[in-house]
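Priority: medium. Attachment 1 of 2:
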């Protein structure tokens, strides 16, 4: 039993299910995605395959679709009760976790799977990268070495964005972030058009309200997923991903990290370990990991990057 499921004998709000038991909850489901589609969805270093999609993510997508359909019915019943016709309210899902833990792949996969369920055909995905402060502003505030920490985001803009989507606005716009340039792209944007489901993925989406504020973006989530793994495993995954990027995206002269492309493998590994130790590990320990108990569901990964167990908050 994990520390989330039991702590010092106290009753926990989570039920822990091993992967086999979780998969057995939906024995007749078959993944609607092809092997090619799964390869296109997974990120660097992810070992996602058809078996894991069927055993872990298809049941999760069905659970989420049931939650979303239930929320729609409750909204309609409430509108009838108060005698007032109100706009459709999207179901909002937060996906949180460390750098390199695979949350982006999971968010993309859930988007594709949820669109296949009858009650949630329109699913939009937004990452919080678009709400990072521009590099020039981070430099002005002395925060470039803390990029990804809560204070490096425009949290008010993110809260306004999700609030507008949640209110039923027909069209809401978000900034666009380029991973190649490692910065916000001026005059570029992402447009969200009245979805049935909005997935918000990011490092710190489960943070409680900042000091002096009464509301956080996590307060607007109907369901949240935390992607979990041992810190030592995540550090190793980060290092391997850094090497893949060094041999790939970093070779582009337009890449913000092009200066790393000429490093030897030993130098690249040392650089990755330095970045992890000085930035990503402190952010994980100080800001991201403490939000894990706030999640509706925790996906726990083993050393092989595959989900080994699921912790579901009791309703």
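Attachment 2 of 2:
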């Amino acid at each position: 039993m994990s520390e989330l499921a039991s702590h010092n004998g106290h009753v926990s709000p989570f039920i822990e299910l091993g992967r086999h038991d979780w998969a057995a909850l939906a024995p007749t489901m078959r993944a609607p995605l092809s092997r090619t589609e799964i390869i296109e969805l997974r990120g660097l270093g992810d070992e996602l395959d058809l078996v894991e999609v069927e055993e872990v993510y298809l049941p999760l997508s069905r659970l989420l679709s049931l939650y979303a359909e239930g929320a729609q019915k409750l909204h309609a019943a409430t509108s009838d009760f108060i005698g007032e016709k109100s706009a459709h309210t999207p179901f909002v899902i937060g996906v949180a976790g460390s750098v390199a833990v695979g949350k982006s792949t999971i968010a993309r996969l859930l988007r594709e799977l949820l669109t296949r369920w009858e009650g949630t055909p329109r699913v939009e995905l937004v990452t919080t990268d678009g709400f990072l402060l521009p590099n020039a502003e981070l430099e002005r505030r002395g925060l470039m070495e803390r990029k990804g920490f809560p204070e490096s985001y425009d949290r008010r803009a993110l809260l306004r964005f999700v609030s507008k989507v949640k209110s039923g606005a027909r069209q809401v716009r978000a900034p666009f972030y380029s991973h190649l340039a490692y910065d916000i792209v001026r005059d570029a944007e992402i447009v969200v058009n009245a979805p049935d489901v909005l997935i918000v993925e990011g490092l710190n989406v489960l943070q409680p309200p900042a000091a002096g504020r009464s509301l956080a973006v996590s307060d607007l989530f109907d369901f949240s997923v935390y992607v979990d793994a041992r810190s030592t495993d995540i550090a190793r995954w980060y290092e391997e991903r850094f090497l893949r990027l060094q041999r790939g995206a970093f070779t582009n002269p337009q890449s913000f990290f092009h200066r790393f492309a000429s490093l030897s493998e030993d130098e690249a590994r040392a650089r990755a370990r330095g970045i992890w130790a000085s930035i990503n590990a402190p952010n994980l320990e100080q800001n991201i990991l403490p939000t894990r108990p706030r999640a509706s569901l925790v996906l726990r990964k083993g050393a092989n990057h595959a989900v080994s167990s699921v912790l579901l908050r009791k309703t």
